[in-house]
Amino acid sequence: IEYVTQLFEYDEKIERRYLQQGDLEDLNDLLNGLAISLPDATVTNDLPWPLTVLIITMSDIQCSHISVTDIESWQVKRADMTQVDFFFNVLDITIECTLDWRYEVRNQGISDRGTAVLSAKNSGNYVQGYYKLHSQEGKTFNTDPPISSDVGNCETNVQISDMDFYGGISAKVLDTFEKSMRNTVETELEDVICDEMLKLDESIDEAAIKRMYDWITAHFSSNDIDPLYAEKELLSSNEGATLVDWTNEDT
Fold it and tell me: Each residue of 25-41: b (16+ CB within 10 Å) or e?
């Protein structure tokens, strides 16, 4: 889906959304090889008398197997061609995490340990943000590439959809406190994603900014997106196949 809207003070806004077959294969191949390490976390829960407090420590939290199924993106160019804003909304994110857990009941000498596997496969998972690319003072993108950028406005929402504990009978005890552990991991994962994105401002150089601008320009320059891409790709890879027209009563 692509459309152009005239905006006050801006040349144009172009929005694009990719949901067609194969659109995100390269990105998912890249994401699948990434691993995110989260800091250790501790959750405490009050227990009924005569017990005291249950302390759960989660360590070696590793998240990987990241993939997305939907991306919305749009760019806004200033009329004077001195700034381009690239916005993105990554939707339907899937992430899997593993961790080591240990629990103890304070002052009771009761403790145990094990592992857990977490899955975030919720359609409400997303990461939103933007990049602002700026031209050199006194120059425009018509003659020179951008030389600086700003990264900001990062928003995330990650919901753990499943959490399985391993480690004998003690794992069953932790099932009771799954919600508090799940919320803790969700918060840490959201914080790390935005922290890493905002750090790009510190490491990105002019060459990387130019590559980003070239990619954004190419990404939004095509006007020949075929809405029947998936159907035609299916036919081309299956000789003799035909499509069913559900609007035809005689089909």
Answer: eeeeeebeeeebebeeb
> Are 181 and 61 spatial neighbours (Cβ–Cβ below 8 Å)?
no
User: What is the DSSP secondary-structure string of 72-127?
Assistant: EEEEEEETTSSEEEEEEEEES-EEEEEEEEEEEETTTTEEEEEEEEEEEE-TT-EE
Q: Which tens digit of pLDDT belongs to each residue from 143-156?
A: 777 777 777 778 89
- C-alpha Rg value of the chain to the nearest Å: 24
Q: Which of 34, 181, 27, 36 is nearest to 92 (CA)?
A: 27
Q: Find, among 28, 58, 56, the residue nearest to 186 by Cα.
A: 58
Peptide bond into 50 cis (omega under 30): yes
CA pair distance 206, 212, nearest whole angstrom = 10
- Rounded Cα distance, 12 and 104, in Å: 59
pTM over 0.85: no
